Amino acid sequence: MSLRLQATSSCLSVGLHRVLGGLLLLSLLLTLLVPSSNGQPESIDMFAELRCLCVRTVSGMHPSKISSLEVIKAGAHCPKVQVIATLKEGKKFCLDPDAPGVKKLVQKILEGRGLAA
């Protein structure tokens, strides 16, 4: 009978070690996922910029309503070109970069700045 108790206690010991090892590994992984913060809001902005900003796009917008236009080229943060229009009233819309009207608008702005080829 004492043999059986020893076998059971060793099984419990092995099971406890596995559980504790798993919890230690899980806590280490969770600490890697939480970004370190030194109190500066720029660190939060840095993590927010690592994805596409435009989820939905609009195929066109009247140029007279647009106060500024921002073109973000494709990169590691997002595989597609993003065109963000800020309206005179302050709202922002993502424009479809493949729409003919948007292409004309971007081309016109680039020509006005002397940047078009």
Summarize the structure in short.
The protein has 117 residues and is an alpha+beta fold. Helix content is 44%, strand content 15%. The chain folds into 2 domains: 2-35; 47-112, OB fold (Dihydrolipoamide Acetyltransferase, E2P) (Beta Barrel), CATH 2.40.50.
Give an overview in words.
The chain has helices at residues 2-33, 42-48, 100-112; strands spanning 66-72, 82-87, 92-95. The chain is α+β, with helices and mostly antiparallel strands and 117 residues long. The protein folds into two domains: 2-35; 47-112, OB fold (Dihydrolipoamide Acetyltransferase, E2P) (Beta Barrel), CATH 2.40.50.40. β2 and β3 form a beta hairpin. It is rod-shaped, with a radius of gyration of 28 Å.
N-to-C span:
90 Å
Total E-strand runs: 3
Corresponding CATH architecture of the largest domain: Beta Barrel
Write down the secondary-structure element order: HHEEEH
Strand order of the largest sheet: 1-2-3
Radius of gyration: 28 Å
Supply the CATH class of the largest domain: Mainly Beta
Helix fraction by DSSP (H/I, runs of at least 4) = 40-55%
Strand content: 5-15%
Uncertain runs? 37-46
In DSSP terms (H or I, runs of 4 or more residues), the helix count works out at 3
**What count of structural domains?**
2
The multimeric state of the shown protein is single chain
Largest β sheet strand count, sense and barrel closure: 3 strands, antiparallel
CATH topology of the largest domain: OB fold (Dihydrolipoamide Acetyltransferase, E2P)
Which structural class do the helices and strands define? alpha+beta
Mean pLDDT: 76
Protein name: C-X-C motif chemokine
GO biological process, one term: defense response
Pfam families: IL8
Keywords: Chemotaxis, Cytokine, Disulfide bond, Secreted, Signal
